[in-house]
Specification:
The chain has helices at residues 2-13, 68-85, 107-115, 128-137, 179-196; strands spanning 25-32, 38-41, 46-48, 55-62, 93-99, 122-125, 143-144, 151-152, 156-162, 168-173. It has one domain (2-196): Glutaredoxin (3-Layer(aba) Sandwich). The chain has five helices and ten strands; from the N terminus they run αββββαβαβαββββα. It is globular and about 40 Å long. By secondary structure, it is α+β, with helices and mostly antiparallel strands.
């Protein structure tokens, strides 16, 4: 676990810029494009970088059996989407739940689980290597103990800014998540991104 923590810190330090707005987490002045990836959503449709273009994406790494932590975070994301929908910009935002336990979280299970929170949430899975690659690209590496099934660092929220034709990893938002704080941070990031480009 020590080496994992050091790796995450060293990776994130490359992207932090103090000129970026203050948020509950890290905001990158120079957003990082991610490499090509291919996963699958809970409707068995391909989920690639094209699904991130043209909108802001809150990408949440977790798993359906993680308990109260994921439940609370997804509930706050639901509250965030409801608050933003009143401002008529919800269509420009999506919440993507990426499972780190593909052996347990089938497409059907992901669909059922996420529908308890919001019908617009997208569930994503894939083989473990593809998921690990995608997670590492977003500075959210995880490990799965083959003996205990315990996940290390399973819960993580990323903000991905995808203005066509470009797409970029914009921020890491750290728990505990609160809808009001997320809305304030998101608003500050959006305003800053519009004036700093």
């Amino acid at each position: 676990m020590l080496s994992l923590g050091v790796w995450v810190g060293s990776q994130l330090s490359w992207f932090v810029d103090r000129a970026a707005p203050t948020a509950n987490g890290l905001v990158f002045e120079n957003p990082r494009p991610i490499s090509t990836f291919q996963l699958v959503d809970f409707n068995q449709d391909t989920f690639s970088v094209d699904r991130l273009k043209g909108r802001w994406s809150f990408i949440y790494f977790g798993y359906t059996a993680c308990g109260q932590i994921c439940t609370q975070s997804l509930t706050e994301l639901k509250r965030l989407i409801l608050a933003l929908s009143s401002k008529n910009n919800a269509r420009q935002i999506q919440v993507v739940f990426v499972t780190v336990d593909p052996g347990h979280d089938t497409a059907t299970r992901l669909n059922t689980y996420l529908r308890e929170f919001d019908s617009t949430f997208v569930g994503v899975t894939g083989d473990i290597d593809a998921l690990a690659f995608f997670a590492a690209e977003l500075a959210a590496p995880f490990t799965l103990d083959s003996n205990t099934g315990q996940k290390q660092r399973p819960e993580s929220l990323k903000l991905y800014h995808a203005d066509q034709p470009s797409a970029a990893f914009q921020a890491v938002l750290t728990p505990p998540h609160d809808a009001q704080r997320l809305q304030a941070d998101f608003g500050a990031i959006v305003r800053w991104s519009q004036t700093s480009r």
